[in-house]
Design goal:
Structural class: alpha+beta
Number of helices: 7
Largest sheet: 5 strands, antiparallel
Distance between the termini: 158 Å
Shape: rod-shaped
Number of strands: 29
Protein backbone atom coordinates (compact mmCIF):
# COMPACT_ATOMS: atom_id res chain seq x y z
CA UNK A 1 0.00 0.00 0.00
CA UNK A 2 1.05 3.58 -0.56
CA UNK A 3 -0.48 6.60 1.23
CA UNK A 4 -1.24 9.97 -0.33
CA UNK A 5 0.96 12.74 1.02
CA UNK A 6 -1.84 15.26 0.53
CA UNK A 7 -4.97 13.66 2.02
CA UNK A 8 -3.53 10.55 3.71
CA UNK A 9 -5.76 8.13 1.82
CA UNK A 10 -4.40 4.61 1.22
CA UNK A 11 -3.80 3.57 -2.41
CA UNK A 12 -2.50 0.47 -4.27
CA UNK A 13 1.27 0.18 -4.42
CA UNK A 14 1.33 0.55 -8.19
CA UNK A 15 -1.03 3.60 -8.30
CA UNK A 16 0.27 6.85 -9.78
CA UNK A 17 -2.50 9.23 -8.61
CA UNK A 18 -4.55 9.29 -5.42
CA UNK A 19 -7.97 7.63 -5.90
CA UNK A 20 -9.60 10.08 -3.48
CA UNK A 21 -8.14 13.55 -4.16
CA UNK A 22 -6.32 12.94 -7.46
CA UNK A 23 -2.87 14.16 -6.27
CA UNK A 24 0.23 12.51 -7.75
CA UNK A 25 1.62 9.87 -5.43
CA UNK A 26 5.24 10.02 -4.25
CA UNK A 27 6.81 6.55 -4.14
CA UNK A 28 9.60 5.64 -1.69
CA UNK A 29 11.77 2.62 -1.41
CA UNK A 30 9.91 1.39 1.59
CA UNK A 31 6.26 0.29 1.12
CA UNK A 32 5.24 0.39 4.77
CA UNK A 33 3.30 3.39 6.13
CA UNK A 34 5.65 5.43 8.31
CA UNK A 35 4.62 6.04 11.86
CA UNK A 36 6.26 9.46 11.88
CA UNK A 37 6.37 12.12 9.23
CA UNK A 38 9.31 11.56 6.95
CA UNK A 39 12.10 14.03 6.47
CA UNK A 40 13.46 14.96 3.11
CA UNK A 41 15.96 12.42 1.83
CA UNK A 42 19.47 13.75 1.30
CA UNK A 43 21.71 12.30 -1.36
CA UNK A 44 24.61 10.08 -0.17
CA UNK A 45 27.98 11.72 0.54
CA UNK A 46 30.01 9.94 -2.03
CA UNK A 47 31.89 10.90 -5.04
CA UNK A 48 31.41 7.58 -6.62
CA UNK A 49 28.16 6.31 -7.95
CA UNK A 50 26.50 3.59 -6.03
CA UNK A 51 27.47 0.17 -7.19
CA UNK A 52 25.07 -2.69 -7.52
CA UNK A 53 24.82 -4.84 -4.48
CA UNK A 54 26.63 -8.11 -4.86
CA UNK A 55 25.36 -11.21 -3.28
CA UNK A 56 27.00 -12.08 0.05
CA UNK A 57 29.26 -15.15 0.28
CA UNK A 58 27.07 -17.19 2.53
CA UNK A 59 25.36 -20.53 2.45
CA UNK A 60 22.20 -19.08 4.01
CA UNK A 61 19.77 -16.90 2.07
CA UNK A 62 19.60 -13.31 3.20
CA UNK A 63 16.41 -11.84 4.65
CA UNK A 64 14.82 -8.69 3.30
CA UNK A 65 16.14 -5.56 4.92
CA UNK A 66 13.55 -3.77 7.08
CA UNK A 67 13.62 -0.01 7.39
CA UNK A 68 15.27 1.29 10.49
CA UNK A 69 13.12 2.97 13.10
CA UNK A 70 14.77 6.33 13.02
CA UNK A 71 13.90 9.92 12.39
CA UNK A 72 17.23 10.56 10.73
CA UNK A 73 17.63 10.61 6.98
CA UNK A 74 18.41 7.24 5.55
CA UNK A 75 21.93 6.52 4.29
CA UNK A 76 22.71 4.51 1.22
CA UNK A 77 22.83 0.83 1.91
CA UNK A 78 26.27 -0.73 1.74
CA UNK A 79 26.86 -4.33 0.87
CA UNK A 80 27.29 -6.58 3.88
CA UNK A 81 30.72 -8.02 4.57
CA UNK A 82 30.16 -11.70 4.86
CA UNK A 83 32.33 -14.65 4.18
CA UNK A 84 29.51 -16.88 3.29
CA UNK A 85 27.83 -16.82 -0.07
CA UNK A 86 24.16 -15.91 -0.24
CA UNK A 87 21.88 -17.45 -2.73
CA UNK A 88 20.12 -14.89 -4.93
CA UNK A 89 16.38 -14.65 -4.35
CA UNK A 90 15.63 -12.47 -7.37
CA UNK A 91 17.51 -10.15 -9.62
CA UNK A 92 17.97 -6.74 -8.02
CA UNK A 93 17.73 -3.69 -10.24
CA UNK A 94 20.47 -1.15 -9.94
CA UNK A 95 19.65 1.61 -7.51
CA UNK A 96 19.18 4.90 -9.26
CA UNK A 97 20.41 8.03 -7.62
CA UNK A 98 17.69 9.47 -5.41
CA UNK A 99 16.48 12.80 -6.67
CA UNK A 100 16.04 15.62 -4.31
CA UNK A 101 12.44 15.64 -2.98
CA UNK A 102 10.71 18.77 -1.74
CA UNK A 103 9.86 18.85 1.87
CA UNK A 104 6.46 17.26 2.55
CA UNK A 105 4.27 18.93 5.17
CA UNK A 106 2.81 16.71 7.83
CA UNK A 107 -0.62 15.28 6.74
CA UNK A 108 -3.60 15.71 9.02
CA UNK A 109 -6.37 13.47 7.50
CA UNK A 110 -9.08 14.03 10.16
CA UNK A 111 -9.23 17.79 9.72
CA UNK A 112 -9.35 17.53 5.93
CA UNK A 113 -12.37 15.19 6.04
CA UNK A 114 -14.14 17.52 8.44
CA UNK A 115 -13.56 20.48 6.15
CA UNK A 116 -15.04 18.59 3.22
CA UNK A 117 -18.10 17.62 5.29
CA UNK A 118 -18.58 21.23 6.31
CA UNK A 119 -18.33 22.29 2.67
CA UNK A 120 -20.98 19.76 1.61
CA UNK A 121 -23.27 20.90 4.42
CA UNK A 122 -22.82 24.52 3.39
CA UNK A 123 -23.66 23.73 -0.22
CA UNK A 124 -26.73 21.78 0.91
CA UNK A 125 -28.09 24.72 2.92
CA UNK A 126 -27.39 27.12 0.06
CA UNK A 127 -29.43 24.85 -2.22
CA UNK A 128 -32.29 24.68 0.29
CA UNK A 129 -32.29 28.47 0.65
CA UNK A 130 -32.32 28.96 -3.12
CA UNK A 131 -35.18 26.50 -3.60
CA UNK A 132 -37.15 28.09 -0.77
CA UNK A 133 -36.62 31.54 -2.24
CA UNK A 134 -37.74 30.32 -5.67
CA UNK A 135 -40.87 28.70 -4.20
CA UNK A 136 -41.68 31.89 -2.31
CA UNK A 137 -41.27 33.93 -5.48
CA UNK A 138 -43.59 31.56 -7.38
CA UNK A 139 -46.14 31.68 -4.56
CA UNK A 140 -46.01 35.47 -4.44
CA UNK A 141 -46.39 35.70 -8.22
CA UNK A 142 -49.25 33.19 -8.14
CA UNK A 143 -50.95 35.09 -5.35
CA UNK A 144 -50.65 38.34 -7.27
CA UNK A 145 -52.10 36.72 -10.39
CA UNK A 146 -54.86 34.98 -8.44
CA UNK A 147 -55.79 38.18 -6.63
CA UNK A 148 -56.30 39.85 -9.99
CA UNK A 149 -57.91 36.91 -11.85
CA UNK A 150 -60.28 36.00 -9.02
CA UNK A 151 -61.20 39.57 -8.17
CA UNK A 152 -64.93 40.00 -7.63
CA UNK A 153 -65.51 42.26 -10.66
CA UNK A 154 -63.61 39.94 -13.01
CA UNK A 155 -65.48 36.87 -11.79
CA UNK A 156 -68.78 38.71 -12.36
CA UNK A 157 -67.67 39.70 -15.87
CA UNK A 158 -66.95 36.05 -16.74
CA UNK A 159 -70.28 34.94 -15.27
CA UNK A 160 -72.30 37.55 -17.19
CA UNK A 161 -70.44 36.72 -20.41
CA UNK A 162 -71.36 33.03 -20.08
CA UNK A 163 -74.89 33.90 -18.96
CA UNK A 164 -75.60 35.64 -22.28
CA UNK A 165 -73.98 33.00 -24.50
CA UNK A 166 -75.68 29.56 -24.66
CA UNK A 167 -72.65 28.14 -26.49
CA UNK A 168 -70.55 28.50 -23.32
CA UNK A 169 -70.65 26.17 -20.32
CA UNK A 170 -72.33 28.08 -17.50
CA UNK A 171 -72.66 25.12 -15.13
CA UNK A 172 -69.38 25.79 -13.18
CA UNK A 173 -70.80 29.18 -12.20
CA UNK A 174 -74.21 27.94 -10.99
CA UNK A 175 -75.53 26.63 -7.71
CA UNK A 176 -79.20 25.64 -7.27
CA UNK A 177 -81.47 25.34 -4.28
CA UNK A 178 -81.99 21.66 -5.15
CA UNK A 179 -78.86 19.64 -4.37
CA UNK A 180 -80.16 16.73 -6.46
CA UNK A 181 -80.44 18.85 -9.61
CA UNK A 182 -77.89 17.73 -12.21
CA UNK A 183 -75.85 20.76 -13.25
CA UNK A 184 -74.67 20.25 -16.83
CA UNK A 185 -74.05 22.47 -19.81
CA UNK A 186 -77.39 21.36 -21.27
CA UNK A 187 -79.47 21.63 -18.08
CA UNK A 188 -78.55 25.31 -17.48
CA UNK A 189 -78.93 26.38 -21.13
CA UNK A 190 -82.58 27.58 -20.68
CA UNK A 191 -81.26 30.24 -18.28
CA UNK A 192 -78.75 31.36 -20.92
CA UNK A 193 -81.45 31.33 -23.61
CA UNK A 194 -83.55 33.72 -21.55
CA UNK A 195 -80.71 36.17 -20.90
CA UNK A 196 -79.49 35.99 -24.48
CA UNK A 197 -82.87 37.47 -25.43
CA UNK A 198 -82.66 39.91 -22.49
CA UNK A 199 -79.02 41.03 -22.54
CA UNK A 200 -79.75 44.45 -21.06
CA UNK A 201 -81.24 42.75 -18.01
CA UNK A 202 -78.13 40.58 -17.66
CA UNK A 203 -75.82 43.59 -17.92
CA UNK A 204 -77.84 45.44 -15.29
CA UNK A 205 -77.53 42.46 -12.94
CA UNK A 206 -73.75 42.49 -13.38
CA UNK A 207 -73.51 46.19 -12.57
CA UNK A 208 -75.74 45.75 -9.54
CA UNK A 209 -73.69 42.85 -8.15
CA UNK A 210 -70.40 44.73 -8.57
CA UNK A 211 -71.72 47.60 -6.46
CA UNK A 212 -73.45 45.36 -3.93
CA UNK A 213 -71.35 44.85 -0.82
CA UNK A 214 -73.48 42.12 0.74
CA UNK A 215 -74.54 39.46 -1.75
CA UNK A 216 -77.68 37.34 -1.44
CA UNK A 217 -77.13 33.58 -1.33
CA UNK A 218 -80.50 32.69 0.19
CA UNK A 219 -82.25 31.69 -3.07
CA UNK A 220 -85.08 34.11 -2.27
CA UNK A 221 -84.91 35.39 -5.84
CA UNK A 222 -84.93 33.39 -9.04
CA UNK A 223 -81.39 34.50 -9.84
CA UNK A 224 -78.89 36.12 -7.46
CA UNK A 225 -75.14 36.13 -6.80
CA UNK A 226 -73.48 34.67 -3.71
CA UNK A 227 -70.23 33.26 -2.33
CA UNK A 228 -69.67 29.52 -2.50
CA UNK A 229 -66.29 28.54 -1.04
CA UNK A 230 -62.85 29.75 -2.10
CA UNK A 231 -60.31 29.22 -4.85
CA UNK A 232 -57.09 27.76 -3.34
CA UNK A 233 -58.41 28.59 0.15
CA UNK A 234 -57.62 32.26 -0.54
CA UNK A 235 -59.97 33.90 -3.00
CA UNK A 236 -63.79 34.01 -2.60
CA UNK A 237 -65.66 31.96 -5.23
CA UNK A 238 -68.78 33.68 -6.61
CA UNK A 239 -71.64 31.76 -8.20
CA UNK A 240 -75.14 32.33 -9.55
CA UNK A 241 -77.72 31.21 -7.00
CA UNK A 242 -80.56 29.94 -9.18
CA UNK A 243 -83.91 28.53 -8.08
CA UNK A 244 -85.50 25.44 -9.59
CA UNK A 245 -89.20 24.99 -10.29
CA UNK A 246 -91.61 22.14 -10.94
CA UNK A 247 -94.41 23.56 -13.13
CA UNK A 248 -97.48 21.57 -14.15
CA UNK A 249 -98.36 21.25 -17.84
CA UNK A 250 -102.07 20.97 -18.68
CA UNK A 251 -103.99 20.17 -21.87
CA UNK A 252 -107.61 19.48 -22.73
CA UNK A 253 -107.33 16.45 -25.00
CA UNK A 254 -106.72 12.84 -24.01
CA UNK A 255 -103.63 11.08 -25.31
CA UNK A 256 -101.93 14.37 -26.05
CA UNK A 257 -98.16 14.38 -26.35
CA UNK A 258 -96.36 17.24 -24.63
CA UNK A 259 -92.70 18.02 -25.18
CA UNK A 260 -90.42 20.45 -23.39
CA UNK A 261 -87.35 21.54 -25.36
CA UNK A 262 -87.99 18.59 -27.68
CA UNK A 263 -88.17 15.98 -24.90
CA UNK A 264 -91.40 14.10 -24.08
CA UNK A 265 -92.50 14.95 -20.53
CA UNK A 266 -94.20 11.58 -20.09
CA UNK A 267 -97.73 10.24 -19.69
CA UNK A 268 -100.47 12.64 -18.63
CA UNK A 269 -103.00 11.86 -15.93
CA UNK A 270 -106.68 12.81 -16.06
CA UNK A 271 -107.94 15.58 -13.81
CA UNK A 272 -111.58 16.39 -14.49
CA UNK A 273 -111.91 17.64 -18.04
CA UNK A 274 -108.16 18.13 -18.32
CA UNK A 275 -104.98 16.06 -18.51
CA UNK A 276 -101.87 17.14 -16.67
CA UNK A 277 -98.31 16.30 -15.62
CA UNK A 278 -96.11 17.79 -12.91
CA UNK A 279 -92.60 18.21 -14.27
CA UNK A 280 -89.36 17.27 -12.55
CA UNK A 281 -87.40 20.27 -11.21
CA UNK A 282 -86.05 22.54 -13.92
CA UNK A 283 -83.83 25.56 -13.62
CA UNK A 284 -85.31 29.02 -14.12
CA UNK A 285 -85.20 30.14 -17.76
CA UNK A 286 -86.88 30.03 -21.16
CA UNK A 287 -88.38 26.76 -22.44
CA UNK A 288 -90.12 25.69 -25.65
CA UNK A 289 -93.30 23.62 -25.24
CA UNK A 290 -95.20 21.73 -27.92
CA UNK A 291 -98.36 19.63 -27.84
CA UNK A 292 -100.00 17.34 -30.39
CA UNK A 293 -103.17 15.22 -30.45
CA UNK A 294 -105.24 13.17 -32.90
CA UNK A 295 -108.67 14.75 -33.45
CA UNK A 296 -111.30 13.72 -35.99
CA UNK A 297 -108.80 11.40 -37.66
CA UNK A 298 -106.04 13.95 -38.11
CA UNK A 299 -103.09 15.00 -36.03
CA UNK A 300 -103.26 18.52 -34.70
CA UNK A 301 -99.98 20.15 -33.73
CA UNK A 302 -100.21 23.78 -32.72
CA UNK A 303 -97.12 25.88 -33.14
CA UNK A 304 -94.60 25.52 -30.28
CA UNK A 305 -94.77 28.20 -27.62
CA UNK A 306 -91.88 29.77 -25.72
CA UNK A 307 -92.48 30.26 -22.01
CA UNK A 308 -90.31 31.83 -19.31
CA UNK A 309 -90.44 29.69 -16.17
CA UNK A 310 -89.74 31.69 -13.02
CA UNK A 311 -92.39 30.12 -10.80
CA UNK A 312 -94.30 26.87 -10.25
CA UNK A 313 -97.29 28.08 -12.28
CA UNK A 314 -99.48 25.92 -14.51
CA UNK A 315 -98.52 25.82 -18.18
CA UNK A 316 -101.70 25.67 -20.26
CA UNK A 317 -101.22 23.82 -23.53
CA UNK A 318 -104.86 23.41 -24.47
CA UNK A 319 -105.66 22.58 -28.07
CA UNK A 320 -108.57 24.85 -28.98
CA UNK A 321 -110.89 23.67 -31.74
CA UNK A 322 -114.07 25.01 -33.31
CA UNK A 323 -116.60 24.08 -36.01
CA UNK A 324 -117.79 26.67 -38.57
CA UNK A 325 -118.79 27.19 -42.20
CA UNK A 326 -117.53 29.52 -44.91
CA UNK A 327 -119.93 30.89 -47.53
CA UNK A 328 -118.65 32.79 -50.55
CA UNK A 329 -118.21 32.47 -54.31
CA UNK A 330 -118.70 29.06 -55.96
CA UNK A 331 -115.49 27.10 -56.43
CA UNK A 332 -113.49 29.64 -54.49
CA UNK A 333 -110.48 28.88 -52.26
CA UNK A 334 -110.43 29.47 -48.51
CA UNK A 335 -107.26 30.80 -46.89
CA UNK A 336 -106.54 30.99 -43.15
CA UNK A 337 -103.46 32.90 -42.06
CA UNK A 338 -102.35 33.03 -45.72
CA UNK A 339 -102.48 29.25 -46.09
CA UNK A 340 -105.01 27.52 -48.35
CA UNK A 341 -107.14 25.22 -46.19
CA UNK A 342 -110.19 24.30 -48.32
CA UNK A 343 -112.05 24.62 -51.64
CA UNK A 344 -115.61 25.94 -51.80
CA UNK A 345 -118.12 23.75 -53.60
CA UNK A 346 -120.29 24.84 -56.52
CA UNK A 347 -122.64 26.51 -54.09
CA UNK A 348 -119.78 28.42 -52.49
CA UNK A 349 -119.88 26.44 -49.22
CA UNK A 350 -117.22 24.73 -47.06
CA UNK A 351 -117.56 23.19 -43.58
CA UNK A 352 -114.84 22.92 -40.89
CA UNK A 353 -115.16 20.48 -37.96
CA UNK A 354 -112.86 20.43 -34.92
CA UNK A 355 -110.57 22.85 -36.64
CA UNK A 356 -107.59 23.95 -34.60
CA UNK A 357 -107.95 27.50 -33.37
CA UNK A 358 -105.03 29.72 -32.41
CA UNK A 359 -104.76 33.34 -31.45
CA UNK A 360 -104.99 35.92 -34.23
CA UNK A 361 -106.57 33.88 -37.03
CA UNK A 362 -107.49 35.67 -40.28
CA UNK A 363 -109.60 34.32 -43.18
CA UNK A 364 -110.19 35.33 -46.78
CA UNK A 365 -111.33 33.75 -50.10
CA UNK A 366 -109.72 33.80 -53.51
CA UNK A 367 -111.11 33.01 -56.92
CA UNK A 368 -109.42 33.10 -60.29
CA UNK A 369 -110.69 35.92 -62.45
CA UNK A 370 -112.25 37.69 -59.50
CA UNK A 371 -109.47 38.26 -57.04
CA UNK A 372 -109.29 38.22 -53.26
CA UNK A 373 -112.03 38.93 -50.74
CA UNK A 374 -111.78 41.23 -47.77
CA UNK A 375 -110.10 39.63 -44.75
CA UNK A 376 -111.99 38.62 -41.65
CA UNK A 377 -109.57 39.42 -38.84
CA UNK A 378 -109.34 37.59 -35.49
CA UNK A 379 -112.34 35.38 -36.15
CA UNK A 380 -110.96 32.97 -33.52
CA UNK A 381 -112.36 35.31 -30.85
CA UNK A 382 -115.89 34.47 -31.95
CA UNK A 383 -116.05 30.90 -33.23
CA UNK A 384 -114.69 29.52 -29.94
CA UNK A 385 -117.90 30.63 -28.20
CA UNK A 386 -121.00 28.40 -28.49
CA UNK A 387 -122.82 29.47 -31.66
CA UNK A 388 -126.24 28.66 -30.21
CA UNK A 389 -125.76 31.37 -27.57
CA UNK A 390 -125.31 34.10 -30.16
CA UNK A 391 -128.21 36.08 -31.59
CA UNK A 392 -128.50 35.70 -35.35
CA UNK A 393 -129.14 39.41 -35.63
CA UNK A 394 -126.47 40.49 -33.13
CA UNK A 395 -124.42 43.20 -34.78
CA UNK A 396 -121.59 42.60 -32.29
CA UNK A 397 -120.43 39.72 -34.49
CA UNK A 398 -119.86 41.95 -37.47
CA UNK A 399 -116.27 43.06 -37.06
CA UNK A 400 -115.28 43.78 -40.65
CA UNK A 401 -113.89 47.06 -41.81
CA UNK A 402 -117.04 47.45 -43.92
CA UNK A 403 -119.82 48.32 -41.50
CA UNK A 404 -122.51 47.48 -44.07
CA UNK A 405 -121.61 43.81 -44.38
CA UNK A 406 -122.22 40.94 -42.03
CA UNK A 407 -119.18 38.72 -42.27
CA UNK A 408 -119.81 36.35 -39.40
CA UNK A 409 -123.12 35.19 -38.01
CA UNK A 410 -124.63 32.43 -35.95
CA UNK A 411 -127.07 30.57 -38.22
CA UNK A 412 -129.07 27.63 -36.87
CA UNK A 413 -126.52 27.00 -34.12
CA UNK A 414 -123.54 27.17 -36.48
CA UNK A 415 -121.02 29.90 -37.15
CA UNK A 416 -121.07 31.08 -40.79
CA UNK A 417 -118.26 33.24 -42.13
CA UNK A 418 -119.10 35.25 -45.26
CA UNK A 419 -116.18 37.41 -46.35
CA UNK A 420 -117.06 40.62 -48.11
CA UNK A 421 -115.42 41.58 -51.39
CA UNK A 422 -114.02 44.92 -52.54
CA UNK A 423 -116.89 46.81 -54.18
CA UNK A 424 -119.35 43.99 -53.44
CA UNK A 425 -122.90 45.22 -52.93
CA UNK A 426 -124.57 43.80 -49.88
CA UNK A 427 -127.87 41.99 -50.19
CA UNK A 428 -129.64 45.01 -48.74
CA UNK A 429 -127.97 47.44 -51.12
CA UNK A 430 -128.72 45.21 -54.09
CA UNK A 431 -132.34 44.81 -53.04
CA UNK A 432 -132.83 48.57 -52.61
CA UNK A 433 -131.44 49.26 -56.09
CA UNK A 434 -133.47 46.55 -57.80
CA UNK A 435 -136.70 47.52 -56.04
CA UNK A 436 -136.23 51.13 -57.13
CA UNK A 437 -135.62 50.09 -60.75
CA UNK A 438 -138.68 47.84 -60.96
CA UNK A 439 -140.80 50.54 -59.35
CA UNK A 440 -139.66 53.60 -61.30
CA UNK A 441 -137.24 52.36 -63.98
CA UNK A 442 -135.25 55.61 -63.92
CA UNK A 443 -132.54 55.66 -66.58
CA UNK A 444 -130.11 57.20 -64.05
CA UNK A 445 -130.04 53.87 -62.22
CA UNK A 446 -128.66 52.08 -65.25
CA UNK A 447 -125.21 51.83 -66.82
CA UNK A 448 -125.48 53.63 -70.18
CA UNK A 449 -128.85 55.00 -69.10
CA UNK A 450 -131.79 54.61 -71.47
CA UNK A 451 -129.77 52.68 -74.02
CA UNK A 452 -129.26 49.73 -71.64
CA UNK A 453 -131.11 46.67 -72.90
CA UNK A 454 -132.34 45.88 -69.40
CA UNK A 455 -133.80 49.35 -69.08
CA UNK A 456 -135.54 48.95 -72.41
CA UNK A 457 -136.89 45.52 -71.46
CA UNK A 458 -138.56 46.76 -68.24
CA UNK A 459 -139.82 49.91 -69.99
CA UNK A 460 -141.45 47.82 -72.68
CA UNK A 461 -143.11 45.54 -70.09
CA UNK A 462 -144.44 48.50 -68.11
CA UNK A 463 -145.58 50.33 -71.24
CA UNK A 464 -147.65 47.31 -72.27
CA UNK A 465 -149.36 47.19 -68.90
CA UNK A 466 -149.93 50.93 -68.93
CA UNK A 467 -151.54 50.75 -72.38
CA UNK A 468 -153.67 47.71 -71.56
CA UNK A 469 -157.37 48.38 -70.86
CA UNK A 470 -157.65 45.19 -68.85
CA UNK A 471 -154.88 45.98 -66.40
CA UNK A 472 -156.10 48.27 -63.72
CA UNK A 473 -152.70 48.53 -61.91
CA UNK A 474 -149.56 46.58 -61.14
CA UNK A 475 -146.71 46.41 -58.64
CA UNK A 476 -143.51 44.38 -58.20
CA UNK A 477 -141.76 42.96 -55.14
CA UNK A 478 -138.01 42.23 -55.31
CA UNK A 479 -136.19 39.74 -53.09
CA UNK A 480 -132.42 39.19 -53.40
CA UNK A 481 -131.34 35.58 -53.19
CA UNK A 482 -127.55 36.09 -53.15
CA UNK A 483 -124.75 38.39 -54.11
CA UNK A 484 -121.22 37.46 -55.13
CA UNK A 485 -118.21 39.25 -56.54
CA UNK A 486 -117.99 39.62 -60.28
CA UNK A 487 -114.51 41.14 -60.30
CA UNK A 488 -113.39 44.71 -60.89
CA UNK A 489 -115.57 45.95 -58.04
CA UNK A 490 -118.78 44.54 -59.53
CA UNK A 491 -121.41 42.28 -57.96
CA UNK A 492 -123.31 39.31 -59.26
CA UNK A 493 -126.85 39.27 -57.99
CA UNK A 494 -129.47 36.53 -58.08
CA UNK A 495 -132.96 37.71 -57.25
CA UNK A 496 -136.63 37.14 -57.87
CA UNK A 497 -139.34 39.59 -58.89
CA UNK A 498 -143.02 38.98 -58.15
CA UNK A 499 -145.33 40.85 -60.54
CA UNK A 500 -148.70 41.64 -58.94
CA UNK A 501 -151.46 42.56 -61.45
CA UNK A 502 -154.99 43.85 -60.82
CA UNK A 503 -157.51 43.72 -63.65
CA UNK A 504 -160.67 45.58 -64.61
CA UNK A 505 -163.93 43.76 -64.54
CA UNK A 506 -164.39 40.48 -62.76
CA UNK A 507 -160.97 38.98 -63.51
CA UNK A 508 -159.10 37.91 -60.42
CA UNK A 509 -155.75 39.43 -59.51
CA UNK A 510 -152.68 37.46 -60.51
CA UNK A 511 -149.07 37.21 -59.34
CA UNK A 512 -146.23 35.99 -61.49
CA UNK A 513 -142.65 35.46 -60.17
CA UNK A 514 -139.57 35.65 -62.32
CA UNK A 515 -136.10 34.62 -61.09
CA UNK A 516 -133.13 36.46 -62.51
CA UNK A 517 -129.63 34.95 -62.47
CA UNK A 518 -126.29 36.73 -62.71
CA UNK A 519 -127.51 40.28 -62.79
CA UNK A 520 -124.57 42.70 -62.46
CA UNK A 521 -124.36 45.71 -60.15
CA UNK A 522 -121.55 48.26 -60.44
CA UNK A 523 -120.84 51.81 -59.29
CA UNK A 524 -120.92 55.06 -61.19
CA UNK A 525 -118.38 57.86 -60.96
CA UNK A 526 -120.08 59.20 -57.84
CA UNK A 527 -119.90 55.84 -56.07
CA UNK A 528 -123.60 55.08 -56.41
CA UNK A 529 -124.78 51.59 -57.21
CA UNK A 530 -126.22 51.22 -60.74
CA UNK A 531 -127.50 48.17 -62.61
CA UNK A 532 -125.32 47.04 -65.47
CA UNK A 533 -127.15 43.86 -66.41
CA UNK A 534 -130.71 42.86 -65.62
CA UNK A 535 -129.91 39.13 -65.54
CA UNK A 536 -131.40 36.10 -67.22
CA UNK A 537 -135.07 35.51 -66.25
CA UNK A 538 -136.50 32.09 -65.44
CA UNK A 539 -140.27 32.41 -65.14
CA UNK A 540 -142.14 30.38 -62.50
Amino acid sequence: MIYCAKCGAPNQANATFCAKCGAKLVKSVQSSRPTQPTQPVQPAQSSQPTQPVKPAQSTQPTQPVKPAQSTQPTQPVKPAQATQLTQPVQQVQPVQPVQQVQQVQPVKPAKTVKKRADLKQTRKWKKIILITAAVLLVLLAGYGYGKSYYAKDKQIDRIISALKDPSKDLSPYVKTDDSSFQLTKKSVRPLQTYYKANQTTANNLGSKWKNQEELDASFEKSVSLGEDGHYFFLFPKYKLMVKTYSPTVVTNHKNSTIKMNGKNVGKLSASGDYYQKKLDPVIAGRYTFSVSANLSGKTISPSPVKLDLFSNHRVSLNITTASFKVSSVPNGEVYINDKKVADLDKKGQASFKDYQITSGMNLYVKKSGIGKSDTIYNFDQYVTDPADQANDDDDDYDFSDDDSSDQIKSVNGNWVLTPSWPGLASSDDAEDLLQKIWDDNDSEDWVNGSSNTGYLSIKKLHDNWDDSDSVANYSEDVSVLSTSPAGNGKTYVNYKVTHNLSYTGDKDDTSVTDTYQNGIISKDSDGHYVLEKLGTPNAK
